[in-house]
Amino acid sequence: MIIDSAVSSAPFAQAGKVSCYDDIEQKILFSMSTVFRIDEIEQIDSNNRLWQVKLTLIADNDPQLTTLITRLREDIQGTTGWQ
User: Measured between alpha carbons, how far is residue 34 from residues 12, 20, 31, 39 in Å?
Assistant: First the structure.
């Protein structure tokens, strides 16, 4: 996971010391609105169907994210049946 600390729009905190589990793995908490880009997916154990996913934290003003959000808003305009 790549986390650029300069991305101020995504608050996060290390939670290793406050976990009820041993410090076997690093734990980081992210806000609910945090968005990651999937960089790579690699199968690391075919018997246990275990996969490793490489993620990159992206900013709210990322051009690809902005384009995606704009497109989704255009697609969902109108009656949804829930209004």
Answer: 9, 24, 6, 16
Rounded to whole angstroms, the Cα distance separating 70 from 12 reads 26
Using DSSP bridges, classify how beta strands 36-45 and 50-57 pair: parallel, antiparallel or unpaired: antiparallel
Query: What separation, in Å, do the N-terminal and C-terminal C-alpha atoms of the chain show?
Result: 39
β-strands 36-45, 28-30 pairing: unpaired
Tell me if the pTM is above 0.85. Answer: no
Q: What is the arithmetic mean of pLDDT over 20-36?
A: 76
At residue 4, what are phi and psi to the nearest 5 degrees? -90, 115
Q: Give the type of residue at 82.
A: W
Domain residues of the chain, as ranges? 12-76
